[in-house]
Amino acid sequence: MTTSLRDALDAWRQLLGAPRVDDGDRAWARYGADTTAATRQLGGALRAASADQVPEIVRIASRFGVPVHPISTGRNWGYGSALPVNHGCVILDLGELRRIVAFDAELGVVTVEPGVTQADLAQFLAQAQHDFLVPVSGAGGTASLLANALERGYGVTPHTDHFAAVTWMEVVLADGTVHRGMLHEAGGPELASLFRWGLGMYTQGLFTQSGLGIVTQMSIALARRPESVAVCLFSLKDEALLEAAAVAIRQAMQRLHPTLGAVNLMNRHRVLSMSAPYPWDHLDAQGLIDAPTLQALGRQFQVFPWTGFATLYGTRRMVRAAQAELRQLLGGIASRLLFVTPRRADTLARLARWVPGASGRGLQRLTQSLRSSLELVAGRPNETALPLAYWRHRHPERAASPKNPAADGCGLIWYAPLVPMRADAVRRYAEMVGEVTRAHGLEPLITFTTLGDRVFDSTVPLVFDRSDPAACARAQACWHALLARGREAGFFPYRFPIQGMEPLRQLAPESCALSERIHRSLDPQGLIAPGRYR
Ligand SMILES: Cc1cc2nc3c(=O)[nH]c(=O)nc-3n(C[C@H](O)[C@H](O)[C@H](O)COP(=O)(O)OP(=O)(O)OC[C@H]3O[C@@H](n4cnc5c(N)ncnc54)[C@H](O)[C@@H]3O)c2cc1C
């Protein structure tokens, strides 16, 4: 340990109290587990008890020249979990800052601290019977709302794009000063929390995917709970229907958004990863699910080559009208097109209990997962999506509750590229992913999610056995190969894991140079999250 690091840890102990400051070894034990199997040497870790400690924490970092890596809940699974990009950082854990600072029940804006989770907000809204939806993501109840928006994550409720719903932020800069924006400063906090563009230079975007400051508060506009929530489920029984489905989905988004929230199109592997155990005993020579087993699982769990899942929000009449339009747009392409409300999903789950035998068990799992997906769509966080992280885990039954894939030893890296909403692009993309993943001994799990009506974001979880070093190396190599092959073909991630920052620097030198100039003026010592997206 260097003298400056030792002195900085001592100064932080004086400020926060010794139990809130870890040395490098204790920090590693607490924060080191990462689903991507990355390792980073940590200088230590700090747990702030209140937001007003953050400016002094940063001043100490500056005095001793020790960089800090802020996390909110550290559940950045698939992108590095709690780990920093660079070695030697001290983790600044803001997870205990869990105040819901303000809530405007009339206009639907909540102001939260970094540690407020999806579950915290759900509980707060339910207790006071406020009719708003939590902007949920697949990461489950224990993940931070603020950090997900900072990473520009997305989810399934009407406010799919989480950063787009952010109206205001409070940010501590590297010199310990606090930035709240011009409208807040000159016009007052209420207006600032209601109008996301603020006044003068729009600065909020600078603090997302950047590490340019430490965000201690964020205001988020919430979607009101609509009169009616439903999902449209459909299947493509033939792989060749993918192109036609992509075009129909684009048309549906053009015509029906915002009643149509978003559409997810998942391949068979992806649906099975959330509903069926991994068939370890039926693998081919490459260690992947063999074709007959895939067919058999598809039959048992009633999963076709592609499954569509579209969300509908509005008045009953609006949802009914959108259903009719969807039927028309998807007719001739989709099979088993079905509209399900939360109540209908409950009934299906109850009925499935009466079906005996193996197909009954398959149906029970399927209806159960449908029921929890509906809950998620209705803005109630849960762990429906998390089992996919455990698919190639040797002992998924040992997962603790609530689930934590990093601590439980799951292997997962997200490849999450943007894909133009064109017929030929989705086909080329799906083929490319299939080829590259299989060549690296990984199953091709693909989802296309609409982000508006021009582009899909596709999420491909590279799921691997983290207890096997060779599998970890293959997954890393696969992510890099997907980045390169995808880029050649016109697909590129919207978000990067920590191992991806180096290639990003090579691919975008001019943008990284600009980012570096901005950082040099606000954070000349490189104290906050060095290496992130630059
Ligand atoms: C099965 C599964 C499903 C998932 N589904 C989704 C999904 O639907 N949508 C989605 O977006 N993600 C998803 N994820 C990915 C990830 O788990 C979530 O995005 C999660 O919300 C990120 O973790 P966090 O909220 O704890 O953020 P943190 O780990 O706390 O933060 C992430 C990063 O943001 C920055 N940061 C955090 N807090 C601050 C702060 N206060 N100030 C400055 N910078 C900060 C840091 O650089 C940090 O590394 C999923 C993961 C899994 C395994």
From TrEMBL:
SUPFAM superfamilies linked to this entry: FAD-binding/transporter-associated domain-like, FAD-linked oxidases, C-terminal domain
PROSITE patterns: FAD_PCMH
Segments traversing the membrane: none
Origin superkingdom: Bacteria
GO biological process: lactate catabolic process
UniProt GO molecular function: D-lactate dehydrogenase (cytochrome) activity; D-lactate dehydrogenase (NAD+) activity; FAD binding
Any Pfam family the entry gives: FAD_binding_4
Entry keyword annotation includes Disulfide bond: no
All residue ranges annotated as the FAD-binding PCMH-type domain in the record: 31-225
Coiled-coil ranges per UniProt: none
UniProt KW keywords: FAD, Flavoprotein
Family: Belongs to the FAD-binding oxidoreductase/transferase type 4 family.
Name recorded for this polypeptide: FAD-binding oxidoreductase
Taxonomic source organism: Inhella crocodyli
